Amino acid sequence: MEFLTGTQGVPVRAVSEYDLRVFLYDWFPRKVQAPLRIAREVHAVLAPFFAFLAEHERIVCEWAEGVLGERKIFEERVKDFPGGHWWDADVQEWQSELWADLEARVMVPHPDLGEGEQWGEVMGVTEHALRHAMQRRWLVWRDELIRAGTTAPEAVRAALIPREHAWMRAPLDALGGRTPLAAIHAERRKRR
């Protein structure tokens, strides 16, 4: 719950496969740094947690059983965490395995925003918030496409990229009528 609300910034009703994968294969090993015995105990309570959500809260996460079935991967991630901070080269290399997997599953927005634009490697507050908003939209759009029958990763990605580009160029009330791209450009100019 701390991870969902504090790190991901979403309520439990918005939990996604992406969130569970980031929790198991990055956040828990990196932030908690628990011994393997404790990590196994935490992993073991997740199946009853998702069963509780389904039974008592009507939050059904069909994907949870499959992810939780990857227990050996979780244990390897816990054992292999090199220690350190996200900016350390060893940690970034360790994290890259998860991010490559998430990209292969089309669970993260495309870095190319069209017309030579890209998400920044180091983001300001506004860009980070917009990247987070895009992440959540991307997951919703992805799920819609998959439910509608588009399941091949490249076909899903090909359908999502134009939506990402369009959202970045659409005026938003929350930004005072500016587009996300314009807000990012303004923030980057201030940060220089």
Biggest sheet, spatial arrangement of strands:
1-2
Q: Which radius of gyration do the C-alpha atoms yield?
A: 18 Å
Beginning-to-end CA distance, first to last residue: 36 Å
Structural class: mainly alpha
- Count of DSSP helices? 9
Q: What profile does the largest beta sheet have?
A: 2 strands, antiparallel
- H/E topology pattern: HHHHHHEEHHH
Low-confidence stretches: none
Helical fraction = 55-70%
Beta-strand portion reads under 5%
Number of DSSP strand runs = 2
Tell me, briefly, the overall form.
Answer: globular
Can you describe this structure?
It is a single chain. By secondary structure, the protein is mostly helical. 66% of the residues lie in helices and 3% in strands. The protein has nine helices and two strands; from the N terminus they run H-H-H-H-H-H-E-E-H-H-H. It has helices at residues 2-8, 17-32, 36-57, 64-68, 71-80, 89-104, 125-147, 153-168, 180-191; strands spanning 112-114, 117-118. Strands 1-2 form a two-stranded antiparallel sheet. Helix 2 (17-32) packs parallel to helix 5 (71-80) and helix 7 packs antiparallel against helix 9 (180-191). The longest helix has 23 residues, at 125-147. The protein starts with a helix and ends with a helix.
Gist of the model:
With 192 residues, the protein is mainly alpha-helical.
Question: Which descriptors would you attach to this protein?
Answer:
192 residues; 9 helices; 2 strands; globular
Secondary structure blueprint with pairings:
Blueprint: H1 2-8, H2 17-32, H3 36-57, H4 64-68, H5 71-80, H6 89-104, E1 112-114, E2 117-118, H7 125-147, H8 153-168, H9 180-191
Antiparallel strand pairs: 1-2
Helix pairs in contact: 2-5, 3-5, 7-8, 7-9
